[in-house]
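Bench notes, bay 3.
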Amino acid sequence: MAEQVSNTELEHRNHRLEILLKISRMMNATTNQETLITNIAAEVAEYIQADRCSIFFYDRLTDELYTHLATGLDAGQAIRIPCNVGIAGYVFNSGEVKNVRDVSQEPLFTGEADKKTGYVTENLLTYPLMNKRKKTIGVFQLLNKTSAPGYFTDEDEAFLQDLVDQISDLLDLILRKDELAARNAILEAQMQQLSSLDYLIGDRTTINTLFKYNRKIHYWGGVAAMVLLTLMAVTSLVMVRSDDFRSTMLGLHTGTGFGLGFRYYIFTDTVSIITLSVCITGLMMYVYPPLNRWLKAKKDRILKEKLQEGTRQAGKA
């Protein structure tokens, strides 16, 4: 009987080594990291006979744990939880393995992921993921044992330890790739924001072009306004002091001189419009310089904040 038990145990160990060797060959043969980690998770779930396998990574930008991969989820579906909540949060912060045979008896179990996915967790095994610097970068989680004894065993924990030691470098690389992609997305959004500011305050931009035309309008409008105001003063003096030209000047002001009737005041309306345009363009000439300074200060402030954020993130790495 003892010999039979020993043979069974030996077969079990050989099987575990075969799986680890198979995973090692997969790592050497597959260059696509996403495909590789998916295949590894499938092999682990099949070997341990877990219904689901999830890998949570730590997102330093949001201080959350997120599923880089979770078997059983729909395409594009992801789970995000605070890094200090639930069993995954506990394992991430403590670095301890958590093997829960019945989640209904576990105070740390919140069921947040089940609520989001509709899945029902009965038992689970959560293992911390560490890089070579012994820094926790996430957790490996197996859900619902599908074979006897109906919960995860010490042997399952031992297998996960060997597995994590083997693939820790790969997981760290994938995490850094995710972080780089997230930072590139943020940087791209920031660059678009800065580009919009550059467009506003650059030398060949809409605002500067309008400002140049505004100056021309102000200048030539001022010239036209001076001429017309001079004519208005002349016509007013003539109307007051000359009986011979009074009707002519009055016709010019009221529009009757152009055959348009008393409803049109061509001369006075023209003077009023040009004078108003001179006033508006003059106001814009006062508004533009402080606006331009404010936009430049905003751009400098954004750049400074992003540089400080980059420095803080580099310090955490």
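Next record in the batch:
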Amino acid sequence: MSVRQTVRNLLIAVLPTAAIEHIKAARKTVRRNQWERSVAKDPDAKIGQDELEAYLRDLGVERGRDLILHCSMRKIGLVDGGAPTLIAALKGVLGPDATLLMPTYPLTKGAVEHMQDPTPFDVRTDKSTMGRITNTLMAMPGAIRSAHPTHSVTALGPDADAYTRDHHKSPTPCGPGSAFWHLSEKGGQILCIGIGIGKVTSHHVIEDKVDNFPIEVYFPERLTKRVIFADGHEEEVEAKAHDERWTLYRVDNDEAAYNEVHAAMKAGGVVVEGPVGRATAHLFRADHLDRVLGERLKREGTTIYRLSEVRKAVG
């Protein structure tokens, strides 16, 4: 583990969530300012819808196959027209028969703290903390947001209702009834632009699909949160939260785990890498990800977690 990552993990372990979120916000501002200076000096940084569509087709995005997007738009460059242009490019490549999805999580703090906060989650008005493009999708006519209190997903397309209507009934964020589970069952695509393969919620689907998963990834108790649905009615919704002990050794935070999972995906031939503007993009199918992680689990006893730490924990 690098010195930088060791320091980061120590800070995560000792600082309160509010302080960590403040640091993240400050870093985001710094990166935004750096990005603006960078693209201002690069006459080739500007990219339009036609160019985006060409990149997506070259990458292998399939027409007619549903897709969930995880994206850092600033990595692409200066998209002419911003988030609506990227969404239009995706819809243009996917075609009218495919559904476009994005994570629209309302989390401004850890999942446990979010669930314990008495403020209701309002599907209609609570902003997504997953980037400007996700809020843009939520505001589009026909877009439907699921009512899961920590891991809501927004879908736009012919299957939007099927992806979102039962997500709040799932016992876990990625379990049966969730958009992530449904995407796997349909063999949908996962597209990561500018973020690598680590920050993909679908990594967790296998944890619910496999009997007797070797790690207790969730806190045992179900928490409840008041949710205001799209039609205005309110319900108490139950949900389990991930055990935060494991986040330090997971693919999204641990360099060794990331490299192992990425290598397994490449060895399994399931991931395609290529440019989208100035960003590096990764494209793979949700069911193929399940297969690779399932094979890794059988072979090594872990999926997205650093093996050495898993072995220590499970004895």
